[in-house]
């Protein structure tokens, strides 16, 4: 079991590579993931959310109670910056209806399930990250359908009530089950073992979803890939920047600003992919944007986290050099 826990950790570290491999395998042999559709896809999404719920214990909900202002402001920033930024990017690039729908869908989803790990690697405020991810996921069944209806409901047929019910089923219920199990059994060794394995299971589940999209929309993926990647990159990068500087609104320190950058910029694109294929099955472009976003956000978030960590190491090395060589400091200083 220790081997499985180590494997799970490595899968989490290299999420983007695993997802890319799944997509590559699908293009070679589409039947590999062609089963990930319909009810099977709902189950896979539920497994991802169950894995997230199993990481949430009493202390995480206590964070919400101890730091409600910061977490609410952060979540508000996420659910305003990313949806509005998505429609702005879509209009600026004159995207098609399908690509616009996909980008807005990604922007209207809650924070990514890997954002907590990224915040840890970035030397951010991990408790703040967990609080934002928890709150954004809890309110997403209401906020996501509302944003979609408001921003693209005039051009795309929407079933807001159906989406709400679906999100409650595949997000809140599995998270609640996982969280309750964590609270009740977190001291049990068998549960600790299962909990250690679940992040890796979630990564494989993400890979299955992406493989399923590639199996169904493989040809269209190449046709729309370039403009989709450009739109996703702009949306994601601006999310990082605006998220970071939104920290000034609450007088956040550097650690919190880094967390805000990651929490705002990294979305649960896997959920967006599931929502797209469930509620917009004839709109291939929206699913393509969501699927590509899953890969892009995983890669860019990991790169950003490592850049933040590198900057800290650079500053520490520079300070040590200045202490050892005081003559390097100019007279004016």
From TrEMBL:
The chain crosses the membrane at residues 12-28, 40-57, 95-114, 126-150, 162-185, 197-218, 224-247, 286-311. Keywords: Membrane, Transmembrane, Transmembrane helix. Pfam families: SBF. It is found in: Membrane. The keyword ATP-binding does not apply. GO terms for cellular component: membrane. This is Bile acid:sodium symporter family protein. The lineage of its organism: Bacteria, Pseudomonadati, Pseudomonadota, Betaproteobacteria, Neisseriales.
